[in-house]
Task: structure prediction
Amino acid sequence: MGRVVRERREALGLTQEELGERCNLHRTYIGSIERGERNLSLQNIERIAHALGILAWELVRAAEDRR
Result:
């Protein structure tokens, strides 16, 4: 999931801090997600997906496709 979040964030030209502001999560939390150090709650998946301009299921599917 972290790799997908990072790639989408970078494609949108956002910093970790900007993404964090969009979804009301701290930039260090975003960084730990991108490094694969965190398991995400459904609520946070939805918040991040919305901030990235995609639906939660699209984020999950993209992460599953990367496995």
In short: Residues 2 and 37 are 9 Å apart (CA to CA). The two ends are 9 Å apart (CA to CA).
